[in-house]
Amino acid sequence: MRALLLSASRVGDTPYLVHALPFIDALLKSTERELLFVPYAGVTISWDDYTGKVAEALAPLGITVTGIHSTDDPIKAVRQAKAIAVGGGNTFRLVTELYGQQVLGAIKEQVQGGTPYIGWSAGSNVAGKSVRTTNDMPIVYPPSFDGINLVPFQINPHFTDYVQPGHNGETRSDRLNEFLTLNPQERVVCLPEGTALSLDGNKLTLLGDKGGYLMRFGNTQRIEEGCDLSHWL
Description:
Elements: E1 2-6, H1 21-27, E2 34-38, H2 47-58, E3 64-67, H3 74-80, E4 83-86, H4 91-100, H5 104-112, E5 117-120, H6 122-125, E6 154-156, H7 172-182, E7 188-190, E8 196-200, E9 203-207, E10 212-216, E11 219-223
Parallel strand pairs: 1-5, 2-3, 2-4, 4-5, 6-7
Antiparallel strand pairs: 1-8, 7-10, 8-9, 10-11
């Protein structure tokens, strides 16, 4: 399998997906410049507009983008895709649509067969075992929390432990430790903005210059750029 799991579509105030272009360019072969985009996580943006936004961002790489929602047969579109990208937005909306359109299993099969996968934010969250470590509100009720399971662990995109002065709520680490307390067998990879996971066969690597965190029940380990996480597969 080949996959790029980005924490976010931006770093700071950089333009949309610009920081990810070198990663995407390295992932896709010359014959994989036709991308099937899954905009299902979009809520306050139309899926047409979302697809257009991604197409504009990826145009410098010579990539053509087709929205899965504009195809007559979403499952057939997945099976014929040269590459698949799943964008960010609301994770619960995304999962609800993936199950509703019956394409979650098809995406998994295609990626396992060699079709490259790109995800950011919700699109990365759903690539893990489940979406139980998303940061999003459950604005809809999906039939399952199970993800595509391209990697055998949980992912937490947009990870930060910043606490706004005067705010007395739990930190992100607090929430993830709650999850691990009730699910001590699980593992979580925490991706700050600007970082990504690169999956290439049996090799898993952390990209970006921000570092990240591996969380198990009772243990949190900081990892740096280039860290080999293949033992987590």
